[in-house]
Amino acid sequence: MRVLCFLLLGFLYEKVSGDRSFTIDDANNCFRKDGDCFHYISGSIHYFRIPACYWKDRLLKMYMTGLNAVQVYVPWNFHEPQPGMYIFDGDRDLEHFLDLTKELGLLVIIRPGPYICSEWDMGGLPAWLLNKQDISLRSSDPDYLNAVDSWLSVLLPRLRTRLYNNGGNIISVQVENEYGSFLACDYSYMRHLYHIFRLYLGDDVILFTTDGNTDYELKCGTLEGMHATVDFGPADNAKKAFDLLRRYQPTGPLVNSEYYTGWLDYWGESHSTVSAELVSQGLQTMLEMGANVNMYMFEGGTNFGYWNGADYKKTYKPITTSYDYDAPLTEAGDPTDKLLALRSVISKFLPVPQGPMPPPTPKYNYGYVTLQKVGDLQDFLDILCQGGPVVTRYPVTFEDVKQYFGFMLYRTRIPWEIPDMAILSDPFNGVHDRAYVSVDGNFAGVIERDHVRSTNVTGSSGDWLDVLVENMGRINFGAFFNDLKGLVANLTLGGDLLTDWLVYPLNIDGLIAEGWPHAPGNHIVMTTQTESHEGPVIYSGTFRITAKGDTFLKLIKWTKGQVWINGFNIGRYWPDRGPQVTLYVPGNILSTAEINNITVLELENAPDRLLVLLLDRPILNGTNKGV
Ligand SMILES: *[C@@H]1O[C@H](CO)[C@@H](O)[C@H](O)[C@H]1NC(C)=O
Ligand SMILES: *[C@@H]1O[C@H](CO)[C@@H](O)[C@H](O)[C@H]1NC(C)=O
Ligand SMILES: *[C@@H]1O[C@H](CO)[C@@H](O)[C@H](O)[C@H]1NC(C)=O
Ligand SMILES: *[C@@H]1O[C@H](CO)[C@@H](O)[C@H](O)[C@H]1NC(C)=O
Predict the structure, then answer these.
(1) The whole model's pTM is what?
(2) Residue 221, SS3?
(3) Which of 193, 227, 275, 453 has the fewest CB atoms within 10 Å, i.e. is most exposed?
(4) 454 lines ligand 1 (CB under 6 A)
């Protein structure tokens, strides 16, 4: 009986909202919303790159620009960090984010993946998938599909009542992402996803695919039953791109699902910018053609913590902490000239809401903070790795020990006397991604994937050889997805294989979240320290503020590392490599009532004066220095 009631309620619900409809009109090449021909002008925003308390502010600014929709990815690995463990609260509260879009009168184009690229770690796929050896990602491999199915069985039902036809504001749903760029070209995988999406979302929702505008990509990425769309930027010829799309999608609305307003940055390359003029002209051209456009990104945000991805183009290329993207709203959510230029184009096609654009939020110059050395990272192994090390003959990976992010220390004893120098070498290019080497606590150098394949060491038989390995972000695009981290191959010393390792997975974030190293009682270790500022060292400091707001952290003459403020991991810094010089510090993590705590893990070299600066503006275009 109870079953019948539920069924009946479900039926009534769908009937009541039956006058709402969002469909495709193939005869007139447009979307139809409640019967009327409809075009969207949308912008991408990633809730996972913005603190939740700022979501509404950013969405309001998008609404005030005249957008009628927003496009949103859902990163699987953000919500299911361990198999079967789901997080949908705080900064991961997708449903709260969707509630806000609805409250502001914005429609939603949602892109649940399971793969999303997005310059996000592993393109949104959880690294724990790699625990199954040789898993074939983004394919019909049953191990991959089982994990996908169970994730989608959790995610998609949360979206169902939010679909436009069911009374919500989600007008369309993308399946996979740029699948045509992936060499597998596995139609049965795409067909499987299609059926799963239909199973949970119903037959009447618009499903679509997005691909680059080449024949190969459109051939492998599109599938019967899903509306094909393309992505391209202002430098591309819109007419040519849409003409090509028409060969695969002869009828229905033309859609550019990712019209690039800017571009991402890699460490060691120049900062990307695209002029407001070019971007707004390109938008106008497409709108004049009657196309639907989503601007990627409209608000880029930040790769906090360890979430940045990497590309692999001849070499491994990690993406910066800032995902500002030179987008119309800055990383800190402020309107730019580009936004105003786009708004004036939009106003020729759609009524733009009256009233002023919210002004930039205040930014604070809190000044210098002096840090102190807490200790060498190696001094804290017992508290950073409370379970003790993994004892192993050959190196194991991060994934092997189920530590998916951050840092692990690989320790072995130098097997013989090295009176002069011996070469510690990475003959198989197995350092994923950067290693900080020391002998008996003395820093010896760095090994870097694809770039620096050895370093010289000296020492005595029995000395500890420590290799701290940093995971700098998993590859998010292309063919090399099975990007295991740590030492994924053996190292040699003077040509001989090193064996018998102690591997310490380091829970730095967990410890810092508990108040370390600021909490009283933690400072005793300081007396035993050397004054050396070389190699991996923890520093900390405190500062007080009287007014709270966004600020930007500049680590003057520091080299490379990770920063936490009040327990929140604000990301990687690497001013030595550039182009990003300052880190965005969202005001919500600061406190006016209490002392603010800053912790820095510097991996290579701290300056003589242990100063950092909290500045009122970002510097994202510092000089870039290759390897
Ligand atoms: C390592 O030592 C060799 C000779 O032993 C030398 O040619 C090389 O420049 C040294 N490398 C570094 C990075 O110091
Ligand atoms: C290290 O070398 C040994 C012996 O050749 C081999 O069995 C092992 O698989 C290698 N380990 C890694 C991680 O490559
Ligand atoms: C900073 O650390 C101190 C000592 O543990 C703690 O009392 C204080 O609450 C922390 N401040 C913030 C803003 O979390
Ligand atoms: C960096 O950007 C700022 C602000 O847009 C600009 O004033 C400055 O000239 C730029 N610097 C370089 C080196 O391009």
Answers:
(1) 0.95
(2) helix
(3) 275
(4) no
